[in-house]
Specification:
Layout lengths: L13 E4 L2 E4 L36 H15 L3 E6 L10 H8 L5 E5 L2 H14 L5 E4 L11 E5 L10 E7 L10 H10 E9 L4 H8 L3 E6 L12 E4 L2 H17 L4 E4 L3 H10 L6 E3 L6 H9 L5 E4 L13 E4 L9 H8 L13 E5 L4 H21 L4
Parallel strand pairs: 3-8, 3-9, 4-6, 4-7, 5-6, 7-8, 10-15, 11-13, 11-14, 12-13, 14-15
Antiparallel strand pairs: 1-2
């Protein structure tokens, strides 16, 4: 037996009901009986000649990376765009999006986390104001069709054999990383080429890249030309980390800056927000029901300190934000997570530096790898900017 939606062949994930076998591994996405073929949805397709309306033009490095990615895609090759945080991964997709739409092809943008879906959809509406852009995620499943569909990876089960170009953002992030079910959804939804994006190398792609089954395009230079922020690492006892967190939040608030305080667990978020209530701190994690409202209030600078779990480690841009990681040696913070977290700092032209602080009792391999990788990316960027260096 084999499920024709998720590819399951494990007998323990099948159940028998009134003479019919069905797959239990993907049953929460609607029951599918064995042998039933999932049909593609009936969606609109139109030829669209559109150009992005950018507040700033792409740099020469961005243009080169964008063009190279499109050349690989037009050669029917999947592409991994390995770019530093803040290098403009989303912007590097615009040329490919326009090229596919001009041929009447369907484009999807799949992201691991709901919060990032909403942010990316809002950004795309600003850049492509004449396109019908829909976000498909929890709380947004009424409208499923548009010129450009932005969705969580879970929602790809709705789109079998649909996308001629499937842009897969942060493919090494939870919950996609390590999930055979979600990988099956991605493979089934993509009828053409994949454009994969991340600021951290996905171990699952390394062999495909070596074998040239996937082409790689790299960009480690941010548009403003300034280096990535290398975090300050403080090795101190846990009790002192609380005091330092309070101190840094006070310092940043006096400087007129907003602060993201990353903590490893949900209960840490609640406690930390109480400790920082003097700065009007609020907290957010995956189980919060008011995530959208809290994020919008933070964007509008209605409070200066937001305590968060790794929920906000990727895809979120807050102008001028500073970052403190509390209990940075906790196992939940791996190297990729920390690279993404400190990548929230220094993304804007008018504030390209900022401050990142990692508080830990010991410097483990994840912290060391985070720092060395950021420093390596900075060296690569300097080399690209100064060929003789």
């Amino acid at each position: 037996m084999r499920c024709l939606r998720c590819g399951n062949e494990d007998p323990k994930f099948f159940a028998y009901d009134q003479g019919v076998w069905y797959c239990r591994r993907c049953v929460r996405f609607n029951r599918l009986d064995v042998g039933v073929v999932v049909s593609p949805p009936v969606l609109s397709r139109r030829t669209i000649h559109e150009k992005p309306e950018l507040a700033f033009g792409l740099t020469s490095a961005q243009k080169a990376a964008s063009a190279q990615a499109l050349r690989y895609l037009q050669a029917k090759k999947d592409v991994f765009l390995y770019a530093a945080t803040g290098a403009g991964k989303t912007e590097l997709c615009y040329e490919s999006i326009c090229a596919y739409l001009s041929q009447g092809k369907k484009v999807g943008f799949a992201i691991a986390r709901r919060q990032v879906v909403l942010e990316i959809a809002a950004r795309l509406r600003q850049v492509f104001p004449r396109l019908r852009i829909v976000e498909v995620c929890q709380g947004h499943t009424t409208q499923l069709d548009g010129d450009l569909i932005v969705c969580t990876i879970h929602q790809l089960y709705r789109y079998p054999q649909t996308f001629d170009l499937l842009i897969l953002d942060e493919l090494d992030a939870f919950p996609y990383a390590g999930s055979d079910l979600l990988r099956a959804f991605v493979d089934q939804a993509c009828a053409g080429e994949k454009l994969c994006l991340s600021a951290t190398m996905d171990p699952g792609l390394e062999e495909d890249i070596r074998q040239k089954r996937v082409e790689i395009v790299t960009l480690f230079e941010r548009p403003h030309g300034k280096p990535l922020v290398v975090p300050d690492v403080w090795r101190v006892p846990l009790w002192l980390q609380w005091i330092l967190t309070i101190g840094y939040c006070g310092r940043f608030t006096k400087e007129g800056k907003q602060t993201l305080v990353f903590v490893p667990r949900k209960k840490d978020a609640r406690i930390m927000a109480m400790v920082l209530r003097g700065y009007g701190a609020r907290y957010i994690h995956a189980a919060c029901n008011d995530k959208d409202e809290v994020m919008e209030a933070f964007r509008q600078r209605k409070f200066s300190v937001l305590v968060t779990t790794t929920l906000l480690e990727r895809g979120i841009t807050i102008p001028g934000v500073q970052v403190v990681v509390f209990h940075g040696d906790h196992p939940v913070f791996n190297a990729a997570s920390l690279i993404q977290i400190f990548g929230r700092v220094g993304r804007k032209f008018d504030d390209p530096y900022g401050k990142g602080v990692c508080l830990c009792a010991r410097t483990n391999e994840a912290i060391r790898s985070c720092v060395s990788t950021i420093e390596w990316m900075n060296r690569c960027a300097r080399s690209a900017l100064s060929p003789n260096e």
